[in-house]
Structure formats: structure tokens, C-alpha cells
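Quiz preparation item.
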């Protein structure tokens, strides 16, 4: 009987044996896992990619890199130098106010502005306007650069990539701004000149909308760039053609149409405007905080770079 009792105690219920087996298996698996780490989830690739010579970044200028429109600021500087009368200055002032309040680029409105600017510079030497443009940048444009967008451009430069402005503003003005910001160069509207003197006409059409996309394609082909590895930044739905041809499109300070399009297509959003402006167009509070943080970080980065 004693032997039978011993045998009976050794026969445990099936459920209990299952629990023991399961616990033992789990413990063995835990020890094995600790000794031999399993595969980890791949980390999100770094962007911009350091050393990728076939990648570049393209930045719209007005309301993306700089608050307001470059042409308006340029016109203000020309008035100060007596290039035109008060009546024309009032027209420029109204156009700038409309542009800032509307926050969008109306093609007809912008064409009217360009026509005014072309009539003003007609007969002047290109070298004269370039020299004046340097002064105007210091007077009216330097303090209107968005620090957050400037930091984005600097990130591409630090990664060894080239960075171009792409704008409907005159190529001379865009080139000055690009050089002052330490960028690679600029694509802009080309005003016709003969013998170094402006004729008051354009070469082709303004670099606006689809024309920007064509300019980027042409430059990418000439420079050996892979557009799927490039980035583009803009505030305006008019630049959707340019944003759509790159692998990394960003909506920066976007108008309502671009914001909606960006969300529908999974594009990244950045907003560096003030909290009041952000609230007006319905940006979440967190985005406003992020904009301030981005601007602060950019200011620190610029300070270090200048030292």
C-alpha cells in the first residue's frame, strides 16, 4: 500500500502538468532570448541622408523662406531710391497687404505685380539693380526670414546636399537671397536684358506653378539628381506640381488648399507662423509650440554657425 500511495502522489492531474510544462517552456524561452537577441525593428532612416550627392532640396521663397513677397519688399526699396512715385508705392503697399491677409498667390494678382515691377526697371542696368538688391535685402528682407525654414535648409546643407530657391521673383533678387543664406543658388523669373539693360519684357513666362516643376526637372537632369531622393518645400497650393515630383514633399506655412492636399497625401507639415496666425487657420496648439521650438533651435544653430 505504501508503494501504491507513493505512485498515486506522483500522478498529478493533467491540468497541473500542463501548467508546469508551460511555465518551464516559457522560462527556457526567456533565457534563450536573453542569450541570443532576436531581430529588431528597422529604425526610421535618417533624413536628410548625409552624403547623398544625388539628393537636393528646393525651397519656394515667398511665405516659405521669407514672410511676405520678395517683389513687394524690392519695390519698397526702389521707391526709397526714387525709382517711382508715391502713387505707385501706394499700389505696392496695397498689393503687399492683400498678399499677407489672403495668404495665397492669385495668378492674376501676381501677374499685375510683375508687370508693375518690369515697367519700373525698364531701361536700368542689370548691374545697378543687383547692387541695389544687396542693399534692399539688408533693409527689408533679412529680418523676415523664417528661422524654422532656414533651419530646414541648413539641415540639407549640413548633410552635404545642394539647396536651391525656386521662385517667381526675379532671378537676380532670388540669387542675392540664396547667396546671403548660404544656399547653392536660385531658380527665378528671367527678365530680358540687351547689352546689360532691362527691356521691360520677360524671357518666356513667370516661374510660377507648373513652370517651377519644369525648372526643377531641368535642373535635376543637368545636375544628375534623383528626384525621388530630393525634397521640396512650399506654402502654396500653386506649387503642388513641384512638390509632387520629389520623394520628400513638405508643406510649410501652408495655405488652406495645400494643407488639405498634404493631409490627403501624407505629406509632412511644418508651420513657423505666430500662434495667432496659426489659430486663424486652425492649426493645432501643438503645432504652434513646435514652430516656436523650431525657430528657437534654428536661431541657436545660426548663432553657432556664425561663430
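Solution:
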Amino acid at each position: 500500500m505504501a508503494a501504491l500511495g507513493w505512485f498515486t502522489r506522483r500522478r498529478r492531474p493533467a491540468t497541473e502538468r500542463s501548467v508546469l510544462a508551460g511555465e518551464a517552456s516559457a522560462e527556457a524561452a526567456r533565457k534563450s532570448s536573453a542569450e541570443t537577441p532576436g531581430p529588431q525593428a528597422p529604425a526610421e532612416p535618417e533624413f536628410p541622408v548625409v552624403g547623398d550627392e544625388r539628393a537636393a532640396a528646393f525651397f519656394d521663397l515667398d511665405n516659405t523662406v521669407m514672410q511676405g513677397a520678395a517683389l513687394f519688399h524690392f519695390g519698397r526699396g526702389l521707391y526709397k531710391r526714387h525709382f517711382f512715385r508715391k502713387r505707385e508705392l501706394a499700389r505696392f503697399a496695397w498689393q503687399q497687404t492683400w498678399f499677407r491677409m489672403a495668404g495665397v498667390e492669385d495668378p492674376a494678382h501676381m501677374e499685375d505685380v510683375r508687370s508693375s515691377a518690369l515697367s519700373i526697371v525698364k531701361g536700368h542696368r542689370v548691374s545697378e539693380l543687383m547692387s541695389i538688391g544687396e542693399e534692399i535685402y539688408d533693409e527689408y528682407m533679412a529680418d523676415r526670414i523664417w528661422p524654422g525654414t532656414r533651419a530646414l535648409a541648413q539641415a540639407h546643407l549640413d548633410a552635404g546636399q545642394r539647396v536651391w530657391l525656386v521662385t517667381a521673383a526675379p532671378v537676380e533678387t532670388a540669387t542675392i537671397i540664396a547667396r546671403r543664406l548660404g544656399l547653392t543658388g536660385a531658380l527665378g523669373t528671367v527678365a530680358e536684358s540687351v547689352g546689360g539693360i532691362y527691356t521691360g519684357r520677360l524671357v518666356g513666362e513667370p516661374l510660377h506653378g507648373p513652370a517651377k516643376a519644369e525648372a526643377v526637372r531641368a535642373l535635376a537632369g543637368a545636375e544628375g539628381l534623383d528626384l525621388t531622393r530630393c525634397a521640396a518645400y512650399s506654402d502654396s497650393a500653386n506649387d503642388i506640381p513641384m512638390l509632387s515630383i520629389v520623394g520628400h514633399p513638405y508643406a510649410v506655412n501652408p495655405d488652406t488648399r495645400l494643407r488639405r492636399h498634404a493631409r490627403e497625401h501624407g505629406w509632412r507639415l511644418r508651420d513657423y507662423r505666430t500662434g495667432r496666425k496659426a489659430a486663424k487657420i486652425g492649426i493645432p496648439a501643438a503645432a504652434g509650440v513646435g514652430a516656436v521650438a523650431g525657430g528657437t533651435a534654428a536661431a541657436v544653430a545660426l548663432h553657432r554657425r556664425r561663430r
